[in-house]
Design brief:
single chain; 506 residues; mainly alpha; 20 helices; globular
Length: 506
């Protein structure tokens, strides 16, 4: 497998050079050692872990492609006339196995996995060389964090490059290439979908043994904690149709009321003049953030807001590549405070002068704007308490517990509404209700394509003002092969590869 990982690293470097997907700021921080070096001291182990966290800053991951592309591909946005040709092929479902964005995501996720495998492979020998009990205890935490990181990377690969999980057929469906060693000569072959998810669950189970509740700081963590492991476990269980486990693990997180609470959109944040929910997006800080990718003004990743704003073109007008779908905007009730947090009605700077709401959810961290004029830069928040409410509500609906699901949905909505927010679900309306609520809450956070895939739902677009003609009338049937991204062509053709293609490879 070492040859396979080395190949991945070469691809990652090539993608960065050829496409500009990864900026110079995505590289490891200056105080992190390279994975080719040895890990023989505690200090070196600490720096390898620093490098793993730095991997997640990549603009190919949550601060860019991994978050944006799944939602852009779905029914949530429209490309507008004047688009800079950014992500248009994804939006038009013209996704080839040579697509540079798909290649970048694939390579970056395996890059994370490779660095995690390096750490785990060196850890036993390092432990044998250390006699300090305090340092040994810290290494236990480090291992837990690394296992969460590897599980997260694999879960994202499975989500994008595999079919939706069905317990009846999962053993016969293609999963991903499972690499659990840094040094090895095993051929690159895709495991089954069942075994791929089991690998993730095994890493999470181990992490949950190693990470301690008392060491979990709660909200706003930039480190992988027990709560992050449990949150990922709940998400994976939902995707695997293990409804009881989804309820169990989401409840473990939701019951930590001393550590997390929803960021209320009705309550003003002390001294800031904005609501707690607005503060969550304007300053990347909130009581409901379970894990965020930590940025500073000198060490950060991609700009999530760029495709929707392009404010920096002249700092006076917006020149969006994509604008929200009218169908999305129509989902928000007049009392729903999320609308004004996420959208702003403007007349764009495009020559056609389109007047339309633009997405300002990713306008940029105000501290970065004020200190370094960095616009459209947001700390990604891949795990929020809101998602755990939605997970438990959906799982309870699957179990027929509609009253419990209604309570969770109502709790979430009341924190987002100026007045009211209560809602009721039943056997006949629960899926539509939860589908709409997930759009309202998780808009452009990277969940929509997976939701449509696992619900076996298609969609159709109707042209709206100044939308690109090609793609605006797109109709996608349920279970279209391109709900599953193609395996990059270079992976299929690399020397010694035995990787099987997806239906979408063409």
């Amino acid at each position: 497998m070492k040859n396979y990982l080395n190949h991945i690293y070469r691809v990652l470097a090539a993608v960065a050079l050829l496409t500009g997907v990864c900026s110079c700021l995505d590289k490891e921080p200056a105080d992190a050692i390279r994975t080719e070096a040895s890990m023989t001291t505690y200090s070196e182990a600490e720096q390898v872990l620093v490098g793993i966290y730095a991997d997640w800053k990549s603009s190919a991951l949550y601060s860019g492609l991994l978050t944006l592309l799944p939602d852009i591909q779905s029914d949530l946005v429209y490309a507008v006339n004047g688009n800079t040709n950014t992500y248009v092929d994804i939006w038009q479902w013209n996704i080839l196995s040579t697509n540079r964005y798909v290649e970048a995501v694939y390579a970056a996720l395996y890059g994370v996995i490779g660095d995690c495998n390096f750490f785990l492979s060196k850890l036993p020998a390092l432990r044998e060389s250390i006699s300090d009990d305090r340092l040994l205890a810290i290494l236990v935490d480090f291992e837990g964090e690394v296992r969460v990181s590897r599980a997260l990377a694999y879960s994202e690969l499975i989500k994008l490059f595999c079919k939706a999980y069905d317990p009846v057929t999962a053993q016969n469906e293609l999963g991903v290439v499972l690499v659990d060693k840094y040094d090895g000569s095993e051929p690159a072959v895709r495991a089954s979908l069942k075994d791929s998810y089991q690998f993730v669950l095994d890493d999470l189970a181990k992490a949950e043994e190693l990470l301690l509740e008392e060491d979990d700081p709660g909200y706003n963590s930039v480190y992988f904690t027990l709560s992050v492991a449990q949150s990922l476990h709940a998400r994976v269980a939902l995707y695997m149709q293990d409804w009881d486990a989804a309820v169990k693990y989401s409840t473990l997180v939701l019951d930590k009321k001393a550590k997390f609470e929803l960021s209320n959109a009705r309550t003003i944040y002390d001294g800031a003049g904005v609501s707690y929910f607005d503060y969550l997006w304007q300053y990347d800080s909130g009581f409901e953030v379970i894990w965020k990718v930590g940025f500073t003004a000198t060490s950060y990743g991609g700009t999530l807001g760029s495709p929707f704003l392009h404010l920096t073109t002249d700092y006076a007008h917006y020149y969006p590549d994509f604008v929200p779908a009218a169908s999305v905007l129509g989902l928000y009730d007049s009392s729903d405070l999320r609308y004004d947090s996420y959208f702003l009605d403007v007349t764009t700077g495009h020559a056609h002068g389109l007047t339309w709401p633009v997405l300002v959810k990713y306008f940029g961290n105000r501290n970065f704007i004020n200190s370094a004029y960095l616009y459209e830069l947001q700390m990604p928040k891949p795990f929020r308490l809101a998602e755990q409410f939605l997970i438990r509500a959906e799982a309870n609906c699957r179990l027929g517990n509609y009253s419990k699901a209604s309570t969770d949905l109502g709790t979430l909505r009341k924190s987002r509404f100026a007045v009211g927010g209560g809602i009721s679900v039943n056997e006949g309306n629960w899926l539509e209700t939860i589908s709409e609520e997930r759009v309202r809450e998780l808009y452009m956070e990277g969940f929509r394509l997976q939701d449509l895939k696992r619900w076996h739902k298609g969609f159709s677009r109707t042209p709206q003002s100044e939308s690109l003609s090609e793609g605006s009338s797109l109709k996608v049937n349920a279970d279209d092969p391109l709900f599953v991204w193609p395996i990059p062509k270079h992976e299929l053709e690399s020397p010694g590869s035995q990787i099987q293609p997806n239906e979408s490879n063409r």
